[in-house]
Design goal:
This is Diguanylate cyclase (GGDEF) domain-containing protein. Keywords: Membrane, Transmembrane, Transmembrane helix. It comes from Asanoa hainanensis. By secondary structure, this protein is of the alpha+beta class. The chain folds into 2 domains: 294 residues; 161 residues, Reverse transcriptase/Diguanylate cyclase domain (Alpha-Beta Plaits, 2-Layer Sandwich), CATH 3.30.70. It contains 17 helices and 8 strands. The strands form 2 sheets. It has a 6-stranded mixed β-sheet, with helices on both faces. A two-stranded antiparallel ribbon has the order 4-5. The longest helix has 34 residues. About 7% of the residues have low confidence.
């Protein structure tokens, strides 16, 4: 079977990027004129963009991620090409600097999607983060030192340094969440942004010192960004953990680091702008960034509220409004003191469903839950495990106290109830177990209470307590019963 040409094309594009970078470096060392270097600058960006757009054609959950990266590289190609075709300085023009700002925003979107690659659908938070970051970047890019850099190059390089440093922080934090290690894609992205940040920082210092032309060595250093990104592999999509194992996180401090940074920076710019020393456009963009950040904060609070509602619904029984089995397990796992567990099963409930219907049976279950709640205190947890089975967790209660409460619940549940003109009377079987008897975990506590409940059911209802078998002695011919009636 012939080998697919796809990897070969990608390899050829990477070789092209590396070769063009080396050629530019040789020209810089040899002191070649600027126009020759400017013509070669777009090639690494174009090769990297082609690699990314080829990944978009393959589809998959990371399609949007590489589309954003390819668009950022295409913007860099347009900016470098515009500068090469424009008279004057070969590296920077006003248009190329504006395209650089757009590229910063696209790179931020690329990183955000890379860290959320297990979520193939855009959400409102991603768009708000991008808007806040874009306005913040643009406000920095419009700073420009009056009288020295009329094209705003100091502002563009300052924006580049800040953006690259924030993106590096975001990749390192987001890639290592949950104890994970940074993969090869993360490492290459960090290295690429680090090289570009150093290049922009040195260029900014040069412009601040009155030098308008940038050394060719900085151009070579900045081209490490597309070359390194071209070698970044498609990261494997992390496996989703089961909902029982973890609670999904919609918003985290790492996710909000970038919009928070630009919001605070914009507030500082607005404070400085009161003196009138900042360009009006920079002040306007900073104000818009703050407003967008407020919108992002409002969305965050709504997401947190929705997450709380989802968390509550996942742990609540729809019929009775009681905690469900999952919630009971969480209460059991959080126990810090001895406790007792009651397990209840209604006797004769199936006949009610068969004779008067499931709707009436649901009413009986709701009435039963209300009757049990009347007997309990706020510290005692009543949960419906499913069907006609309930559980009651009694923190700090002894077996004797639990047995007394179980009989009171027995009386409350077995009292006749009325549905319309029909009188219904149910029995109940209750098993009792304590953590001092079965301290092997929540599952063991439920198991022992379940054993006791079925013994009570076999006796025709009532209450039975679980007692562990004592260690057998040589004199014992047969083991004693592990259950005792109450």
């Amino acid at each position: 079977m012939p080998k697919s040409p796809g990897p070969r094309v990608d390899q050829a594009l990477r070789v092209t990027a590396v070769a063009s970078l080396l050629l530019i470096a040789l020209l810089v060392v040899a002191g070649a004129p600027g126009p020759a270097t400017a013509v070669l600058v777009p090639i690494p960006y174009a090769a990297c963009a082609a690699v990314f757009f080829r990944r978009v054609r393959c589809g998959g959950v990371q399609q949007a991620t590489w589309a954003a990266a390819g668009a950022a590289m295409a913007t860099a190609v347009a900016g470098a090409g515009w500068a090469a075709l424009s008279p004057g300085e070969p590296i920077h023009t006003s248009t190329s600097d504006a395209l650089a700002v757009v590229g910063f925003v696209l790179l931020y979107l690329f990183v955000g999607l890379l860290l959320r690659s297990d979520r193939p659908v855009f959400n409102s938070g991603v768009w708000f983060d991008g808007i806040v970051a874009g306005l913040g970047i643009a406000s920095f890019a419009c700073l420009g030192a009056p009288g020295r850099d009329s094209n705003g190059r100091i502002g563009v390089h300052l924006a580049g340094v800040l953006v690259y440093l924030v993106l590096i922080l975001l990749v390192v934090i987001g890639g290592s969440l949950g104890g994970r290690r940074l993969n090869r894609t993360h490492v290459l992205v960090v290295a690429a942004f680090g090289a570009a940040s150093i290049a922009d920082g040195l260029a900014m210092l040069g412009h601040a010192g009155g030098t308008l032309a940038e050394p060719g060595s900085l151009v070579v250093l900045s081209l490490a960004l597309p070359v390194l990104l071209a070698f970044a592999p498609v990261a494997a999509t992390p496996r989703r953990r089961s909902d029982a194992a973890t609670t999904p996180t919609i918003v985290g401090w790492a996710t909000l680091a970038v919009p928070a940074f630009f919001a605070v920076s914009s507030v500082l710019l607005l404070a400085i702008g009161q003196s009138g020393r900042l360009p009006a456009l920079s002040t306007t963009l900073a104000a818009a960034c703050v407003l967008a950040a407020l919108g992002r904060a409002s969305l965050t609070f709504r997401e947190l509220r929705d997450l709380r509602d989802v968390h509550l619904q996942a742990r609540t029984d729809d019929l009775t409004g009681l905690p469900n089995r999952r919630a009971l397990y969480e209460h059991l796992d959080a126990l810090a003191t001895p406790a007792t567990l009651l397990l209840l099963d209604l006797d004769g409930f199936k006949e009610v469903n068969d004779s008067i219907g499931h709707a009436a049976g649901d009413q009986v279950l709701a009435q039963t839950a209300d009757r049990i709640k009347v007997v309990l205190t706020p510290q005692q947890v009543l949960a419906r495990l499913g069907g006609d089975e309930f559980a009651i967790l009694l923190p700090g209660a002894t077996l004797a106290e639990a047995a007394d409460l179980a009989w009171r619940i027995h009386v409350a549940v077995t009292c006749p109830s009325h549905l319309g003109d029909k009188q219904i009377r149910l029995g109940v079987s209750i098993g009792v177990s304590g953590t001092h008897l079965a301290d092997a975990g929540s599952g063991e506590l439920l198991r022992t209470a379940d054993i006791a409940m079925y013994v009570a059911k076999r006796r025709g209802g009532g209450v039975a307590a679980y007692e562990p078998r004592p260690e057998p002695t040589p004199e014992q011919v047969a083991p004693p019963s592990e259950l005792s009636p109450i």
